[in-house]
Amino acid sequence: MAERIHCAGLQIDAALHALLVNEILPGTQVSSDAFWQGLADILTDLMPRNAKLLALREELQSRLDAWHREHPIDRFDADAYKAFLEEIGYLLPQPDAVEVVTENVDDEIAHVAGPQLVVPVMNARFALNATNARWGSLYDALYGTDVIPEDGGAERAGAYNPVRGDRVIRWARTFLDAQFSLEGGSHADATAYAIVEGQLQISQQDGTIAALADPTQWVGYTGDASAAQSILLKHNGLHAEIQIDPTHPVGQTDAAGVKDVCLESALTTIQDCEDSVAAVDAEDKVVVYRNWLGLMRGDLSDTFNKGGTSHTRTLNPDRAFTAPDGTSFTLPGRSLLFVRNVGHLMTNDAILTADGEEVPEGILDALFTATCALHDLRGGGALRNSRKGSVYIVKPKMHGPDEVSFAVDLFARAEAVLGLPNNTLKIGIMDEERR
Fold first, then answer.
1. 3-state secondary structure 97-137
2. How far apart, in whole angstroms, are the C-alpha atoms of residue 292 and residue 301?
3. Burial 274-305 (b: 16+ CB within 10 A, else e)
4. Residue 63: in which H helix or E strand, if any?
5. For residue 340, which of 23, 120, 176, 411 sits 20 to 30 Å off, Cα-Cα?
6. Alpha helices of 152-223 — where are they, by DSSP H?
7. Which helix (H) or strand (E) covers residue 36, if one does?
């Protein structure tokens, strides 16, 4: 049996205890005693309530099963079924209208629409890949997928195929024309992107000069204005970077020296402790929490072998640009991260009560993942996640408003233990019973 440390009436897996004391807590201004006593108090108060909610699930399920056995589908009566669901409390009265005002929400959630990834946080390499997917090569994405057909000699297999490469570039130019249209020309005919007297000019094959139909779409560049290395454009809150390098193998073949178009892609990523990862015991939970800690501190890395070569992956830095007026600014280099905690049902042997009972894993996740996030909230991390000072937690598999209320109370208790302002921990609610 794994060694256990006894604190605040709890039996804690020794490796998990060491992770908290030696890696998670330093720099958070939270003491070990305060953490363990806070967790013990939460478990004392909320474990019985959690058990009652799960018992209610069982009761409802039992009554649903019995009803369906007694009412064959070929004689289904929707009105009678609805009345039954209301009778047993599965369907509840519609509440009065409410207004929810949420403060300190990052732009990636509040203002900008974009793709969201879900990745198992237990796998450090996958977690890093997804976090770094904030920016991606349009050329690579097109070349490697069936967006570009393989007919006419444009196959993907084997070494670089110039026929396919030409199609990729044509597709990308069409995309630029659609999203960042030019007045007096086309990106497909561009021979140079130049910044002249604070204005973006796009030289055309016929010798004319084109400009963006909407000049406000040009928001920045890298390198010197006299020889920009990239041109940053913005549409619907999302950025596209035209990267210029006439010495690059692709740039050498391009009239304007364009080597790639880099798109702002996955704005947010759910680092998943739940569905996409099987963290079944204390050893697994240590891996999950350590990886999430590394993401919140900004120092997570992973070394792996690929094709006989060792590679080390780390988090991408922020991206620095110069605005048209000459001022400097940065854009996030990484997805804004959510963490998906385990639902109310699961228990885990990482921590046992005094009498040896496994505690609800969702309660552990609430306090451990929030404590890891203190490194981001208090500015101790090398790379910021939330610029608004919030932690985003996805809470899954909740069955009805009482379970949602329980989750709200749980996270409020976690905030109190950690000394966080109310509503720092923001919950994405998944009422997967749809009731």
1. CCCCCCCCCCHHHHCCCCCEEEEECCCHHHHHHHHHHHEEE
2. 11
3. bebbebeebebbbbbbbbbbbbbbbebebeee
4. helix 32-70
5. 23
6. 162-179
7. helix 32-70
Q: For residues 282 and 359, what is the distance between their CA atoms, to the nearest angstrom?
A: 12
Spatial separation of the C-alpha atoms in residues 214 and 419, rounded to whole Å: 47
**Which residue's entry shows tokens 């400097």?**
328
Please report, in tens digits, the pLDDT of each residue of the chain (435 residues total): 679 999 999 999 999 999 999 999 999 999 999 999 999 999 999 999 999 999 999 999 999 999 999 998 888 999 999 999 999 999 999 889 989 889 999 999 999 999 999 999 999 999 999 999 999 999 999 999 999 999 999 999 888 999 999 999 999 999 999 999 999 999 999 999 999 999 999 999 999 999 999 999 999 999 999 999 999 999 999 999 999 999 999 999 999 999 999 999 999 999 999 865 678 899 999 999 999 999 999 999 999 888 889 999 999 999 999 999 999 999 999 999 999 999 999 999 999 999 999 999 999 999 999 999 999 998 766 689 999 999 999 999 899 899 999 999 999 999 999 999 999 999 998 767 665
CA separation for the pair 175, 263 (Å, rounded)? 11
Three-class secondary structure of residue 59 per DSSP = helix
DSSP state of 166: H
The dihedral formed by the CA atoms of 422, 426, 432 and 435, expressed in degrees to the nearest 10: 40
For 140, other C-beta atoms within 10 Å of its C-beta total: 12
